[in-house]
Write a structure and sequence with these properties.
mainly alpha
Amino acid sequence: MSTVSIPYIHIALEVINAIMYFAGFIALSVFLGKLLICKGKVCASARAASVFAAFNFLLWSATTGLLALEIFRGGLAGMKTDKAAQKAMAESKQAAANTTEMKTQTPTQTV
């Protein structure tokens, strides 16, 4: 059984990435909240970046959850797409073998 990625490792990397992103936007928010002098466009854009980072974190967490559901729904013994791909590859090999046989067995007609 060959798979492109191991499901547990894929989920672990997604979760670690989401945790790091969460820590980053929280740290930025805390840093901006403790600044004594924060005026102008630079601080406004930094605050907006913090809000967008929080929204991006929520989206990332949702997609990580959907990925985990899809992996666990399909089972850890193998992804459903692997079985379908193996079946398709077997059918294409069979079709190629049939085509080769037909080419070698074409009768010659004399007129």
